[in-house]
Amino acid sequence: MSKKTTIGIIGCGNISDAYFKGAARSALVQVKGCADLNAEAAQAKAALYGATAMNLPVLLADPDISLVVNLTVPLAHAAVSRQVIDAGKHVYSEKPLAANFADAAALMARARAKGLRVGSAPDTFMGASHQACRRAIDAGAIGKPVGGAAVIMSHGAESWHPNPEFFYKVGGGPVLDMGPYYVTQLVNLLGPVRRAVGLATIGNPTRTVTSEPLKGAKIHVEVPTTVNGVLEFAGGANVAMSASWDVWKHNRTTPIEIYGTEGTLLGVDPNFFGNTPRVCGPDGILRDVDIAAHPFGIANREMRNGTMQADYRMIGLVDMAIAIQQERAHRANGDMALHVLEALEALATSSASGRFINLTTTCERPEPVPLGADESVFV
Ligand SMILES: NC(=O)c1ccc[n+]([C@@H]2O[C@H](COP(=O)([O-])OP(=O)(O)OC[C@H]3O[C@@H](n4cnc5c(N)ncnc54)[C@H](O)[C@@H]3O)[C@@H](O)[C@H]2O)c1
Description:
The chain has 379 residues and is α/β, with parallel strands linked by helices. Helix content is 30%, strand content 22%.
């Protein structure tokens, strides 16, 4: 029988609500304390969700807390996660695992040496639609995967995020901010990446914030905002990836497509957990992929445009908490996040060097999520 795992949260900004709410609906984890560089932010979330606001040393010293969630900005991920590991606790980080591959690799080595676990977002690949895609590919629905396309295109985050600067600093940009959703799902579908090639550029060196409360503020862009590249997977398939925040309008509406020897899979937005993928065989007739038997696919979140999406962010953390008790591997794990980060970083380093980049890491495809209705599938 699983025990409830007591967790702490570091970083009480925009995305922390998803984690506090996710913990509130979970029978398997509970939040005891939260901390932030900005004490008022921690106090506000603590009051809203019934947790205790703590300063960082107090949270890290709390003997009840065995697992800490790192929801700080990308540039702080490595240092904060390292502090958690040094305090003898497991850590689950928002993506990317670190702002660069070298820091992430050092973090993983440190955790391994201490016998502690590292987990990382994204966990969206555990959603019903993405698991149904995995099941279809594994069942041979499109034959052997040969090629594919992944498309990330918008005009960035300064129109909606209350404090969007970090999106344009090291550790951000469309590749490291959104790329983890796409490449993690590609690894879930196809296995690890062998090498990468890319071209990268900055569309506009200055961005103007149009969201409140920082409307009118200027952001100096430090990272590429338009990147086109190709990832070659160890299984042989190559996938074209376009990641841009310089696009006002486009018509490439399928976020992930996989082309196989016997058919095509049209995937859905890997930033969310639900929606209906489609698949066809050699007859070219697309059919819906049934996602109903998989957990984490029912729409539960109203978006800014009024539509509903399935969003079960932090289910990877729940799986990790149970996996620690069951002494099995967790799915949204640091080894996969490290590999994904290396692949993403390779798109930019390839552009700078004019060469293919062979990856130095690899990872296992995570175990499929069992069929069922909710988090009880992990128990
Ligand atoms: N906002 C989203 O929709 C979203 C969605 C998915 C993932 N994410 C990821 O979640 C992370 C956080 O994003 P956000 O939108 O919540 O950012 P945010 O800027 O709204 O919040 C980050 C919080 O971390 C705190 N912080 C920064 N450095 C810290 C440190 N060293 N110690 C303690 N606290 C620190 C800040 O004070 C702030 O309150 C990012 O990695 C982002 O990529 C965000």
